[in-house]
């Protein structure tokens, strides 16, 4: 499980920067923003979701577990 959580933590990094050569373009405009700017805004929002998932399944954040 810990390996999966670590792998999940790299998803935003890969999504934001790994696809940069393919998304580095102005058109199409999405929600009035150039595509590259939209890509970054999208990944900021998705990163919040990924962090919420990591927090939910991280064993260190469970209540009631003796440490």
UniProtKB/TrEMBL annotation:
Pfam families: DUF3311. Keywords: Membrane, Transmembrane, Transmembrane helix. InterPro entries: DUF3311. The chain crosses the membrane at residues 5-23, 35-57. This is DUF3311 domain-containing protein. It comes from Brevibacillus choshinensis. The lineage of its organism: Bacteria, Bacillati, Bacillota, Bacilli, Bacillales.
